[in-house]
Design brief:
Radius of gyration: 27 Å
Helix content: 25-40%
Strand order of the largest sheet: 11-14-17-10-18
Distance between the termini: 81 Å
Largest sheet: 5 strands, parallel
Shape: elongated
Oligomer: single chain
Strand content: 15-25%
Number of helices: 21
Length: 506
């Protein structure tokens, strides 16, 4: 037999598609030809596969070998096809009977010594195989744990090409990964570490309850970074669907630690203020990779010293914050990554950034306006909660009798608030208040009484509040009511939400 076929999976973004790896061996000068839109890494598979086959004790077929990757119109990226190409070549040469691989997807990169190396994106590739009806996959041993979280698929692992050959030829048993381990107990920064700043703590709690974006301004040492870093600690664990999305993104980026299953904790990304647009929203040559925005999907994206970020990087966030996704277009294809995040921006009120605040500020009003003006109006209009933190006083820092609430205590209230919102918005397919369309909130049965909206309407008519801001205040009011255990927002909730939105909290 001079023809063989093995299944693999190709990825474009987080979307996978089943790929048939064909190998045809014909008489002629020895050569290996790859077709089917392979990229540079895949073109180099010819040399890797040849060395791996020979160093695994198998005979290299000295014939003209044509390897085709179907569908030929789908761009193929990366080295995950190596193991499937080697199996197809050996099957086409008659060295291996490939019946054991019928309906089985094979993934893995080959080292020159025949070892099977881990590959990025194993989880979304296995998930794509499962959606296509495949019920068995063979993956690198280092990727077995992440592949095993996909239900309905039998996962077997291999660490060397000769073990795959022994499985196909002699039925040698390949190891299967153990069941997913329970998540480790929560650890990390705790909200109890934050002294004072009751205003900031309240803002963080409301933002967590409704999934709202948050802006924290104040002098150095006021606690902006501490509050932002502790926001994930009060967010509920990710459900199965969200955990699968988050783990897939980290797998594609190559940031998933070996042996880990699903990521259950909301991710936290804090790129430096010198980060580039590509590093923030995603990009790169060839296959566009996810940036910090997508790696924070279902979690928190924290931009410290936000006024120092490049204007282009900040403005690139505007559309993804509205759409919850990033679309990166290249000449060959468009790559889409999810990006539903809670944005937290922090900044000093002026360039001199005196720890004591305005009392010792050396900046003129014009300089202060220009500095904060680096955060454009359209971007700030997408941020629901804006808080100006005051310098911490010695009494707040040194009071031995004051015991701030821990993340566990605040997280319990946030979880109850989110449960209430999830139950309320389930008929329209939403989970948190920040995701509810404004039109839904302005129509019965969710429209709030006109008598409670008086001050909000006046702000809208005067132009001090945009239509987007009006809807965001209503969403904030629902989150405040959920936290306090009320079925609907009242006038006090709307007033507090308005103050949070406009930064006029006392």
């Amino acid at each position: 037999m001079s023809y063989a076929k093995v299944l693999c999976v190709g990825l474009v973004g987080v979307t996978g598609q089943l790929v048939e790896v064909e190998a045809d061996l014909a008489p002629g000068l020895p050569a290996v030809v790859l077709s089917g839109l392979p990229d540079t890494a895949l073109h180099e598979a010819r040399d890797r596969v040849r060395a791996a086959i020979v160093n695994s004790g198998q005979r290299w077929p000295n014939r003209r070998i044509t390897v085709n990757l179907l569908p030929a119109t789908l761009p193929k990226h990366g080295s995950a096809f190596d193991l499937a190409i080697a199996a197809a070549m050996l099957g086409g040469s008659g060295e291996l009977p490939l019946a054991p691989l019928d309906g089985v997807v094979v993934l893995g990169e080959l080292g020159l010594d025949g070892s099977v190396r881990p590959v990025r994106g194993t989880l979304p590739m296995v998930a794509a195989a499962a959606r296509a009806g495949v019920r068995g996959v063979i993956v690198p041993a280092a990727n077995a744990a992440e592949a095993a979280v996909v239900p309905g698929v039998r996962v077997r692992s291999v660490d060397a090409l000769h073990r795959l050959v022994a499985f196909i030829r002699n039925g040698e048993v390949l190891p299967e990964p153990p069941a997913e381990r329970p998540p480790d107990p929560a650890s990390g920064p705790d909200l109890a570490d934050v002294a004072g700043q009751q205003l900031g703590r309240r803002a963080v709690e409301v933002a967590a309850a409704g999934g709202h974006h948050l802006a924290l301004f104040g002098p150095p040492g006021a606690g902006k970074t501490m509050l932002a870093e502790r926001l994930p600690s009060i967010l509920p664990p990710l459900d199965d669907a969200a955990a699968l999305e988050v783990t897939s993104l980290h797998s594609i980026a190559g940031l998933l630690p070996p042996g880990i299953g699903l990521i259950r904790r909301p991710p936290f990304q804090a790129p430096h203020h010198t980060t580039t647009i590509a590093a923030l929203v995603g990009g790169g040559s060839g296959l566009a990779r996810p940036g910090a925005l997508s790696l924070a999907h279902r979690g928190v994206l924290f931009l410290d010293e936000a006024p120092e970020l490049g204007r282009g990087a900040l403005e690139a966030l505007r559309q993804p914050l509205e759409d919850g996704r990033v679309v990166l277009r290249r000449s060959q294809a468009a790559t889409e990554y999810p990006a539903r995040v809670q944005l937290v921006v922090a900044g000093n009120p002026c360039p001199c950034a005196r720890p004591a605040g305005d009392a010792y500020c050396e900046c003129s009003p014009l300089v202060r306006r220009r500095y904060l003006g680096r955060l454009s109006g359209p971007l700030l209009d997408r941020i629901d909660v804006r808080v100006m933190l005051k310098p911490l006083r010695a009494a707040e820092l040194l009071d031995p009798d004051r015991l701030p609430e821990s993340s566990a205590q605040v997280g319990a209230r946030v979880a109850r608030a989110r449960d209430a919102a999830r139950e309320r918005w389930a008929p329209i397919g939403r989970q948190v208040n920040a995701e509810v369309p404004g039109a839904t909130l302005r129509r019965p049965p969710w429209r709030l009484p006109i008598r409670d909206l008086g001050s909000l309407q006046r702000r809208l008519d005067s132009g001090s509040l945009s239509a987007r801001g009006f809807d965001r205040v209503i969403r904030l009011a629902w989150s405040i009511a959920d936290l306090d255990g009320r079925g609907r927002p009242g006038r006090d909730d709307i007033e507090e939400a308005t103050a949070m939105r406009t930064g006029e909290l006392p």
